[in-house]
C-alpha cells in the first residue's frame, strides 16, 4: 500500500517499464532489453511480449491479483514468469559447465523455454 496525494492508502501497481511506444521520449523496449536487465526483476513478476523473439516489444509487470486479465499487460500477451525464465538460464549454465552465458545465450534459453516448455538442449 502507498499513500495517495490526498493521504489515502491505495494499492500499489508496479510495472518496471511503461507500456511500449514508438515515441522518442519512451522508446519501445524489447525482450532483449528485459533479459539484459533481468537482475532488476523479482520472481513474482511476469514477462509480457508481443512474441518470443529478441526484438519483440516487451514489459515486465506484476500479475494482477485476480486471475482475469493475467494473460495480457499493456496490450502485450503473456510470455513467461520471471522465475521460469531465470530457471531456463540457470539450466543453460548447469548443462554447459565452465561457460558463462552471453546475452544471446540467455535469450535463446528463455525463448526456447517459452516456445517449447523445455530446456534448450546442448548443441
What can you see in these coordinates?
With 123 residues, the protein is α+β, with helices and mostly antiparallel strands. 27% of the residues lie in helices and 18% in strands. The protein is built from 3 helices and 6 strands; from the N terminus they run ββαββββαα. Strands 4-3-6-5 form a 4-stranded antiparallel beta sheet. A two-stranded antiparallel sheet has the order 1-2. Strand 5 and strand 6 (76-81) form a beta hairpin. The longest helix has 14 residues, at 103-116. It is globular and about 40 Å long.
Shape: globular
**Rg, alpha carbons:** 16 Å
Low-confidence stretches: 1-26
The count of strands amounts to 6
Strand order of the largest sheet: 4-3-6-5
User: How many helices?
Assistant: 3
Brief descriptors of the model:
single chain; 123 residues; alpha+beta; four-stranded antiparallel beta sheet; two-stranded antiparallel sheet; globular
Strands, helices and their partners?
Blueprint: E1 2-3, E2 9-10, H1 31-36, E3 45-49, E4 58-62, E5 72-73, E6 76-81, H2 82-94, H3 103-116
Antiparallel strand pairs: 1-2, 3-4, 3-6, 5-6
Helix pairs in contact: 2-3
